[in-house]
Write a structure and sequence with these properties.
Elements (H helix, E strand, L loop, with lengths): L1 E7 L5 E7 L3 H10 L3 E7 L6 H8 L4 H16 L4 H11 L3 H15 L4 H6 L7 H13 L2 H56 L7 H19 L1 H15 L2 H13 L3 H22 L4 H11 L3 H15 L6
Antiparallel strand pairs: 1-2, 1-3
Helix pairs in contact: 3-4, 3-8, 4-5, 7-8, 8-9, 8-12, 10-11, 11-12, 11-14, 12-13, 13-14
């Protein structure tokens, strides 16, 4: 961050200027080491913060975190200290957001903060399970082993997530195409046939009359009640943001035909992988369940896991 400063030199001259530092304390220390007495030190807050804007559009790919973790484990295993390892990796990273995060982690570690606490400040890159594993590795002295396990875990999770997305793309495309085809039929094709049948002035079969009546109803419902349907969508979206709505939406995502089964298996496999990793690292089961609950985005699954955790605390086994 940039700071405006007003200082007094050793010969009592007033000096003004600007410098960059990780924090206000670091900026004050830099000026003091240069022999200045700080009179005023204020941070510069630009109207448009380029770093935040760049970070918003520069997502951190999970594979970059996996590569960073494997390389960090390799450097630590070879005897390199944490700060030097992070600096070497920071020089190799091409993602601007990740490079900035690693730089802040280096500054924190140099300031006396543990690596796990420094990583915990950046949840957009390092998950709760990740920094908790690093904390366990620091306490047990086998940080490089834990980092390799974390990298394997994230790689399997990324592969599974990619497979789930691929499995869901095909039915999603089919649904969209079906909606488009039905819309074209109702709006353009069927009205032409309806007029043709009406010009015959004959008694049409019952099935044909029902089909024409249904087409007319769909056309009226689709084009004359668009505003009410939009309001339903808005209300439904707002409802999914409430706790009860999030629970019902999560439950629907687990029970929806075909798609729900895929989502359920994905959630169960993620929970099993997380529990196996954390249990193998030496964490107790109640704490493992807390981390697993925090790691799921499905409210229904979170409620179910919370009930499992409460049963374990009451004295029951995991099974």
């Amino acid at each position: 961050m940039d700071y405006h400063y007003v200082v007094c030199s050793e010969d009592n001259r007033i000096v003004k200027g600007k410098l960059s530092a990780a924090s206000e304390e670091a900026a004050a220390d830099m000026l003091a080491y240069s022999g200045y007495r700080v009179l005023s030190l204020q941070g510069i807050t630009p109207f448009v913060q380029a770093e935040k804007l760049t970070a918003r559009f520069s997502r951190i790919n999970p594979m970059e975190i996996i590569m960073f973790t494997r390389q960090l484990a390799l450097l630590l295993e070879s005897g390199t200290d944490v700060v030097t390892s992070l600096e070497l990796l920071r020089a190799q990273v091409t993602n601007r957001s990740l490079k900035k995060i690693i730089g802040e982690v280096v500054n924190d570690v140099r300031g006396g903060i543990s690596l796990s606490e420094a990583l915990n400040k950046h949840p957009q890159a390092f998950s709760t399970i990740y920094h908790r594993l690093v904390s366990v590795g620091e306490k047990t002295g086998n940080l490089e082993v834990v980092l390799r396990r974390a990298a394997d875990y994230m790689e399997r999770s990324a592969t599974t997530q990619k497979s789930v997305k691929s499995a869901l793309v095909y039915p999603a495309i089919l649904c969209i195409l079906a909606i488009i085809v039905i819309g074209v039929l109702v709006a353009f094709v069927l009205p032409a046939f309806t007029g043709l049948y009406a010009s015959f002035n004959v008694q049409l079969p019952a099935i044909t009359r029902v089909f024409i009546a249904g087409t007319d109803w769909l056309r009226i419902f689709s084009f004359k009640r668009v505003s009410s349907r939009r309001s339903y969508v808005v209300v439904g979206y707002a409802y999914t943001k409430t706790p009860a709505g999030r629970y019902q939406w999560g439950k629907l995502m687990l029970t929806f035909p075909r798609i729900g089964h895929i989502n359920l298996l994905n959630e169960l496999s993620r929970c099993c992988r997380s529990m196996a990793l954390l249990f193998g690292s030496g964490l107790p089961l109640p704490e493992i369940m807390t981390l697993v609950i925090q790691g799921t985005n499905n409210k229904a699954m979170s409620v179910a896991l919370t009930e499992v955790q409460q049963g374990m605390i009451a004295g029951g086994g995991l099974s």
